[in-house]
Each structure stands twice: as C-alpha cells, then as structure tokens.
Amino acid sequence: MDLAANIQEVQERIRAACGRVGRDPASVALLAVAKTQPAEMVQAAAACGLTLFGENKVQEAKAKIPLCPSRLRWHMVGHLQSNKAREAVELFEMIQSVDSLRLAEEINKRAEQAAKRMPVLLEVNLAGEASKFGYAPERLLAELKDLNALPRLEIHGLMTVPPWLPVAENVRPHFRRLRELRERAEAVLGAPLPVLSMGMTGDFEVAIEEGATLVRIGTAIFGERSHAKSAPVAA
Question: Would you give the DSSP letter of residue 135?
C-alpha cells in the first residue's frame, strides 16, 4: 500500500468535487479515521501532511494518541457512552457524536471539571436506522436550546452517518437533508453552525457537492480494515 499516493488521490478527489460546485477546496477538512490502525500508521500519515485524525473508541484512542506526534488533532467520531465522557473530554479536540441531551450534560459536567470548553457536533440519524445512533431531526430541533444553554459546550455543527448504499449518488438526499436541517437549527439558535461532518470513502464527493465541510475517510487512506465486521462509522 502506498499511503502517500492514497492521501494524494483523496485530496485530488476533494479538489475535483469542490471544483464541480464552485467551492474552495480549503473549505473542506480531511479527517483520517484511524480506528484499528496502529500508531505507526498514524505517524506515517502525519509524515505525509495529515494533521486531523478520528477515533471510534475512547480506549483505543487512550492507548494510541500518546504514541503519536503531539501536533496532531483528534476527534471522537464513534458512539460515546456517558461513562467515557471524562476521558473523551481529556483526549479529544472535538466530540462529533453527541446524540442526546443526557450525554451532552455529562460532557458539559466533565468539561467543567476540566476547566475547558468542549467543541461538539450533534449526530443526526436521518434515516431512523435502529442500528445507528443519533438524534431524530425533530428531537434535535426540540432540544437545541437546552443543548446550547450548556455553558461548557460549543455546538459547531452537525454530523451524520447515512445508510450504506452501493451507489453514492443515492446517498445525496441524506446529505441534502442534513444541510437543510443545519439551516433550520441555525434559525432556532440565531447563530451559525459552520461544520457539516458528512461523507466517507464511498460517498464523500457527493457529500462535498451537498455542502460537507469535513469528510471522514478511513479505507481510501489506510486500505481495507482487518476488522471487517466493525460498524461503518467512518469507512
């Protein structure tokens, strides 16, 4: 596997997708999903210029992050249990997977104890899939003011993991719905939510065309995972 070539190809595909809809490629952040990857692979990706990485599990991140360059930035992109909130607040620059007011309150409490502010994204389950976590859109809108009132949380935007479909174009309506939901949420808050985290290896170009500002790429960078049965949070 040629890691540098993989990264370059992904970056070129990002630029091409931006070009098709008249966007500045700099408006799309590339997050490399490092779940199941050893620290050595993260180090190699960092040597190729990547700085933003994502993890699905707190325990894996806790073991891996100290072995990686300190300049790297880490986001939690997998489901977060409330009992892991304290460690997540310590480890990550952003938690992308806030899916309930209860979890948000726990993160807020732990951030208060750590004397820090915690940037978060609100995860949305647009298709109502029982196998996935995330807010139902209307529930998110109903709880948004309570979420925004938590003093240690900074709501930066929305995240989604859409249904897996073999044809990327068929995922487009889900990405469009997240963008439209973001607009409704901004109207409720009266403030911008600049981050739309959507798009993975199989569909990130369509996501960019629909407004993604952050794409979560694992397989296209690191190759197929050995743990094929893992939940496709950022494949």
Answer: B
